[in-house]
Design a protein that fits this description.
With about 110 residues, the chain is an alpha+beta fold. It has one domain (about 1-110): SH3 type barrels, CATH 2.30.30. The chain has two helices and seven strands, in the order E-E-E-E-E-E-E-H-H. It has helices at about 75-95, 100-110, and strands at about 1-5, 15-20, 25-35, 35-40, 50, 55-65, 65-70. The chain is elongated, with a radius of gyration of 17 Å. It starts with a strand and ends with a helix.
Length: about 110
Amino acid sequence: MLVAAAEEPRFGEVWAFCNAAGVLVVHRFARCRQGAYYFQGDAHWPDPPVPRAWLVGRVLRVRSGGRERSLGGRDRLVGGLRLLLRRNARALARRLGLRRVRDSARAFIQRR
């Protein structure tokens, strides 16, 4: 993994930061609110807020499965769109009450 110093994370960029336990985490930047930075893994729920002091830098290159690839503008765009779709899908599900439907279905299945 290649990490570079950068001023501010931009939406959709992949960044390295330390979590509260001091473990290095690499996730995509989602937003900044009241001086705290919010990140989210591509396959995970959002992380707790991260203070500026815990930011390490922007990830420029990753190695996965013996293959190395650069993370550029295309990756930022695709990853950012994925974040937006996931966030909007959750909000829509809340508005439609789909959680209640899912929970009711689970309760019905457990009764059997």
